[in-house]
């Protein structure tokens, strides 16, 4: 039997709760071998981001080439791209290696509020990466920013924004509802066939660092194992709900602590 392999192309979180570190923990928790390509180093903890050091685009390319030249990558997750030249380098690499599944999490703002993507790089996402993605996973503010629209506040408006995101060239959109209101946290999977609402009880905890990264990497892990898109999304939703519910078992940091990626094991 071949070992399922997933690749994360993202930034590093020095406190270990989000970014590459969260992706690798998620892959491991879901029995997938994780490889990584760093786009940026962040000086970061549960209080916020205090610095960002960008990886040169040609070295991002070198990392991607090294992974694909040797590993049988079943699915790719793209997180923080940091700047337009890095986004362009990733897009060119995807065109060259043509992975079967690409999950794009358009990371723009950290949980702490720190901006992680400049305005000029948003167009690079629209132009180069969204058309190459199998699925994009924006939260409500990110979906609005990609469309240059106000944040959607109703089921109908969220579904309509999802359809407009499909028009940018990707076949599926998962709009994450963690920033919404109400007793349920509802994510919306939008494809050409319609909109599926996936609800789970909203969990009262401040320890939500890395939720978006972890959800998208959990979907990527499912796709790497051969699951259908809807199955991968449903399983990822169940995984992240469990990780958030178990987050208060940790005492890590002083503000927004991490979710518990390995809650099934300890």
How does this structure look, described?
- This protein is an alpha/beta fold and 266 residues long.
- The protein has helices at residues 19-29, 57-68, 84-97, 119-129, 140-147, 155-166, 211-224, 229-245; strands at residues 5-13, 33-45, 48-54, 75-78, 102-104, 135-136, 172-175, 184-191, 194-201.
- The chain has 8 helices and 9 strands.
- The chain has a 6-stranded mixed beta sheet with strand order 3-2-1-4-5-6.
- α4 (119-129) links the parallel β5 and β6 (135-136).
- α2 (57-68) packs parallel to α3 (84-97) and α5 packs across α6 (155-166).
- The protein is globular, with a radius of gyration of 17 Å.
- The two termini are 28 Å apart.
Radius of gyration: 17 Å
Q: Into which percent range does the helicity of residues fall?
A: 25-40%
Broad structural category: alpha/beta
Sequence stretches where pLDDT stays below 50 over 5 or more residues? none
Query: Secondary-structure element order, as H and E?
Result: EHEEHEHEHEHHEEEHH
Can you give me a brief rundown of this structure?
The chain is an alpha/beta fold and about 270 residues long. It is about 35% helix and about 20% strand.
SSE order and pairing:
Layout: E1 5-13, H1 19-29, E2 33-45, E3 48-54, H2 57-68, E4 75-78, H3 84-97, E5 102-104, H4 119-129, E6 135-136, H5 140-147, H6 155-166, E7 172-175, E8 184-191, E9 194-201, H7 211-224, H8 229-245
Parallel strand pairs: 1-2, 1-4, 4-5, 5-6
Antiparallel strand pairs: 2-3, 7-8, 8-9
């Amino acid at each position: 039997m071949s070992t399922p392999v997933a690749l994360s192309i993202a930034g590093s979180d020095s406190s270990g709760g989000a970014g590459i570190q969260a992706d690798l923990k998620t892959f491991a928790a879901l029995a997938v071998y994780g490889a990584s390509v760093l786009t940026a180093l962040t000086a970061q903890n549960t209080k916020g981001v205090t610095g960002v050091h960008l990886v040169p685009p040609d070295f991002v390319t070198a990392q991607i080439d090294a992974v694909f030249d040797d590993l049988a990558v079943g699915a790719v997750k793209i997180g923080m791209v940091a700047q337009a030249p890095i986004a362009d380098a990733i897009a060119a690499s995807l065109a060259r290696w043509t992975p079967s599944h690409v999950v794009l999490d358009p990371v723009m703002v950290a949980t702490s509020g720190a901006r992680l993507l400049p305005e000029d790089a948003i167009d690079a996402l629209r132009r180069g990466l969204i058309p190459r993605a199998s699925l994009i996973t924006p939260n409500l503010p990110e979906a609005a920013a990609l469309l240059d629209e106000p944040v959607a506040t109703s089921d109908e408006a969220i579904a309509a924004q999802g359809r407009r995101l499909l028009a940018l060239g990707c076949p599926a959109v998962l709009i994450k509802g963690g920033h919404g209101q109400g007793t349920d946290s509802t994510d919306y999977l939008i494809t050409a066939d319609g909109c599926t609402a996936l609800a789970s009880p909203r969990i009262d905890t401040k320890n939500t660092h890395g939720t978006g990264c972890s959800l998208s990497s959990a979907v990527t892990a499912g796709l790497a194992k051969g699951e259908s898109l809807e199955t991968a999304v449903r399983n990822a939703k169940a995984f992240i709900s469990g990780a958030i519910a178990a987050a208060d078992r940790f005492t890590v940091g002083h503000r927004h602590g991490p979710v518990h990626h390995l809650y099934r094991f300890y």
